[in-house]
Amino acid sequence: MANLKELRGRINSVKSTRKITQAMKMVAAAKLRRAQSQAEAARPYAERMARMLASLGQAVAGNPDAPKLLVGTGADQVHLLVVVTGDRGLAGPFNTNVGRFARSRVRELEAQGKTVKILTVGRKGATYLKREFGSRIVGEISFQGKKRIGFEDASEIAARVTGMLEAGEFDVCTLIYNRFRSVISQVPSAQQLIPAELPAVDATAPAGDGAQAQPWYEYEPDEATILAQILPKNLAIQVYRALLENAAGFFGSQMNAMDSATRNAGDMINKLTLTYNRTRQANITKELIEIISGAEAI
């Protein structure tokens, strides 16, 4: 059994740890509010951009000169996975969940005979995936040390992906990230970026059968000119949205993890304090017995 000095040292150590975890919880909660508002504000814009791109893409999808960002290379052999995780830990299962999701996707694609390349965004994702798929990682991007991720950071990632596409390094690009659902729920998600996902249109369906009609737009200038401008921007916007969703999910998961750590530290302090008091009482009782025994012997 530990003596009183060791128990006092352990209690003080756990109290110091509790102060740290409580401070980290408060910091994460403050950052979460801003990150959550940014992520929620980015969703409508990104979704509308994807819908407008789908409308434009349907008009030129069958064109042999259609942009690669829209239709890809025409092949389906080499897949690039852009895996977005956090740069720091102490966030519960946040980084591990998206890492496992990416690992399952890699195994699934390779089981189909596909070639997989991985571009990691976030230091923890690179560390996790290197254990098993180190040879598949073609690049690592980290924002460690940056106070706030901006649209220019997403533009850099989009430009790198575009450069790899133009160089013929992949056929299909998929973005993997944690989608922020709530403070206690972050869902690993996959979004295909290249080729762009276009909604299927049933050309054989008769008009006026009650089905929802597809909107018809006229564009000025032509669709090809607009796509040349909007496709690179859409790629950066979708990446930026994933970065914001990932940041909000990270702070939510970190806040929960630090809250659990703070409560666990409090429970441990109570148990150690109880053990300390029992040990102290046992020592006092033992000393009293020795004194009384000595007095009786005299």
TrEMBL record:
Topology within the bilayer: Peripheral membrane protein
InterPro entries: ATP_synth_F1_ATPase_gsu, ATP_synth_F1_gsu, ATP_synth_F1_gsu_CS
CDD domains in alphabetical order: F1-ATPase_gamma (cd12151)
UniProt keyword annotations, A-Z: ATP synthesis, Cell inner membrane, Cell membrane, CF(1), Hydrogen ion transport, Hydrolase, Ion transport, Membrane, Transport
Subunit structure: F-type ATPases have 2 components, CF(1) - the catalytic core - and CF(0) - the membrane proton channel. CF(1) has five subunits: alpha(3), beta(3), gamma(1), delta(1), epsilon(1). CF(0) has three main subunits: a, b and c.
Superkingdom: Bacteria
Organism from which the protein derives: Pseudoroseomonas cervicalis ATCC 49957
Name of the protein described by the UniProt record: ATP synthase gamma chain
A cellular component annotation (GO) from this entry: thylakoid
Keyword Transmembrane (UniProt): no
Membership in a protein family: Belongs to the ATPase gamma chain family.
MF terms (GO), sorted A to Z: ATP binding; hydrolase activity; proton-transporting ATP synthase activity, rotational mechanism
